[in-house]
Write a structure and sequence with these properties.
The complex is a heterodimer of chains A (about 110) and B (about 850). Chain A is built from four helices and three strands, in the order αβααββα. Chain A has about 110 residues and is of the alpha+beta class. Classes of the chains: A alpha+beta (about 110), B alpha+beta (about 850).
Amino acid sequence: MTKPTDLVQGTLDLLILRTIATDPLHGWAIAQRIQYLSKDVLQVNQGSLYPALQRLERQGWITADWGVSETNRRARFYRLTAAGRRRLQQERADWDRLSAAISLVMRTA
Amino acid sequence: MRIVHRIGALWRALFRSARIDADLADEMRFHVEREVQANIARGMAPDAALRAARLTFGSIDAVREQSRDERPGAFVRQLVRDLRFGGRLLAKSPVFALSAVAIVALGIGSATAVFSVVYGVMLRPLAFRQPDRLVTIWLDHGTGRAFPTAADAAELRRLQGVFDDVAIIRSSTNLNLVVGEQPRRLLGARVSPNLFSVLGVSPSLGRAFTRQEDQPGEDRVVVLSDALWRAVFAADPSIVGRQVQIQGAMYTVVGVMPPEFHYPLSEVEAWTPAVLEPGELTRETTNNYRVVARLHAGVTLEQARRDVATLAQRLARTYKSNERSSITVSSVLEDAVGEVRATLTLLLAAVSFLLLIACVNLSNLFGARATSRSGEFAIRLALGASRPRLAVQAIAESLPVLALGGVVGVLLAQWVVSAFVAAAPPGVPRIDSIALSVPVIGYSIALLALTGIATSLSSAAQAWRSDFTTITKDANRSSTAGRGRTLARRIGVVTQVAFALPLLVAASLLVRSAINVSRVELGFHPDHVATWSFEVSRNKYATDQAIADYYARLLGAAQAVPGVEHAAIVNRIPLGGNQTNTVQFENATGTTEGQTDIDSRTVSSDYFATLGVRLVDGRLFTDRDDAAAPTVAIIDDRVARAVWPGETALGKRLRIAGRGWATVVGVVGHVRAVTLEVDPRPQIYWSYRQWTQNRAVLAVRTGIDPRSLFAPVIRAVHTVDAEQPLYDVRTMRDVVDVSQAQRRLTTLLMIGFGGLSLLLAAVGIYGVVAYGVTGRMREFGIRVALGSTRAEVTGLVMRQGTSMAIVGALIGIALALTAAELMSNLVYGVAPRDIVSLAGATLVLMLVVMAASYIPARRAASVDPALALRAE
């Protein structure tokens, strides 16, 4: 197994927003989803996941409700707010432009 | 929306912190459980699965810590922790805490109390429309301000484009109001109908006067004050249009003024239209009026003053009554404040000095505390605390002291102010607007913040300069490390002494003035005299003759009361208000400069014996000096000497405008008639049968306690007229004392402030000297061991305290001399830069300072050299 890549803070925020864009998820599921979608390349450090969730919640981009998990236990489910959706679009556009620019440089240089 | 969200988050972070923590913990537990289940599903053994899950998750506590630190309001939570720590430190030294709180409370409390009086009296806008556009106008005949005449007011009204309108107010009168069977005395003002529109205040009920209601026959209308309406008419809204009996005639109530409306005095309860007497506008007869005017839009006070000065010159050329008279224009607020301005300014300066001394004292106290904590600070620094954190912790201790002291101080001020309003000495204007209002509280909070900054600076600086190396050093033993700190503390002591001295000087100036005033030659004997004031209704006693006869019957009845030796009628007693007239002397051989503006009193023949006024020459009035006899006058010896020097005044003639020539038949001693301190006018007396007035004071002299006559004389008066209300029943001694109440209060306050400042300065000196002694005990031990005598050591220490005091006193003397102008209107018979007061105050201060440094000096001298050296 390769060493999991450390995520830059802003990148983690973007990933979380993207992960819960379709349906509400609890913390563990968010971590699992990111790991699964990145084919185990990105492992979210739980120590940074929960502070990140609280930060996003404070900024009003996501909100959380207590619900019942797939294992029948009380869990907090996070979902995007309208502001969070706008934020995601913007971050995504920024990311696309940035990564395109970086890969362009990498390919041609 | 964003802001609301933020505030919500902050609120939750501050007050729902435990809840957030619990939720987070639960969430993370769930995370771990889920991980364990996933691990088991992947085929791990249960305990291996748990271990693996914990391993991936890491420290739950670390996450919680990080979450807390990132939450908003972290700074506030930090501060609360520091404050708790500060509170615990204070609780460990209650004596220090209590004295610090007491100093803050005294400083803030006295400043708040004085400022609430200053604000209420001097600064708060009057309850009129655009009060800064209102002016009052006075004449000045060279003997101080006097009321103008109706003719003068008419001239002012005719000035083009200076005033919007000019209103006149006749001096307030006592009215007898009868509602049902009950007679009630009330203070009424006769005013021009436009007064309310000039002041820009409308009645809260009914209407103001119409322009025609100052015409004879139209004038039986009255506007009531809110207080009278509530007290007598039970706030009956149907009062407008009702008839009430005033002075025996029926008046129609047309309006009720709002509660905050008071003019020209706060005690006025009713306003009636002032009807001009025939000849007033042509200066054939004169009455005097307070004049208030509203400046025309765009006209400044200076412009109005220039235009009015030109008018005054023209009037002085045209009319004999206005010769040598100037006209002054002053703002209504300035006028309402009047003579208490000097007192209030002095008191405000005094409390500011006191507060400054308190700040320096606190700063020294907390600075010393911070010094004793230098070891702790060094350890904290070594353990990784930042310097700003140390500074905040050093200040944290002073915050609870400030908060508590501030609250106690404001409560104290609230109590003092309400006590003052309830028992204020007479003559304090605008007393009803004195309160702990919002601007006053704002001022106190600002002062508290300044106090806080001043107090915290030294301790914060102390913490900031902390050094690891101090852990290893015993701070007390080193004589060089604390040099900067010691210097700061000495400057503090010098400052305290410097600001305490002017307060002591002011206190001693006021004490000397009070002594001088108490020694003033009154010109009458106030002991064993009782007085009753009353007002005769012209509707009941229509003619002068009827009133004079009524007075004679009252005198007869009073005379018959057992214990009464002399009884007399006078329109106003000395120190009980005055009536002024302009007098013209026939064949004056001396100077009439400053003698023409005179104090008039109409008296019965026994007046001089009753008050104990000395007859110098000629005779007193007799019952034969009546309306049918030639008009006679008695003058005081001061005017007699000035106008007819070197010859007798008897047989000379004088007159006042509107009355015929009168012959001088007697000369009596001069009396302090207006106040004990100001004595501007000569006095002329008239026989009550030749010039009869409706306002009267009945005065009797007795050999027994005058108070015991209060009730019997009232009963005697009521045998003559059962409906006669009497008021202001006082002994003459009380009248004299009350006239000094304001001076006495100011003097007591200054003694209090001076005493407090002295106490604080003494504590300050003691603290610094004692601290120095503690650090130098070993040195003193060595000195004694090497042969120094105890006296030499005592002297050494005392010189330290005394040298600081001398520097402080020198600065203080300079301050006192600079601020002496503040006192110039308050001293009596002593110069504001009086050398005796200055020297006395300095001496007292130096003695106290020496006493304060003697205590630690004794301790230094009693050092046991063996012990001090062995302590190594």
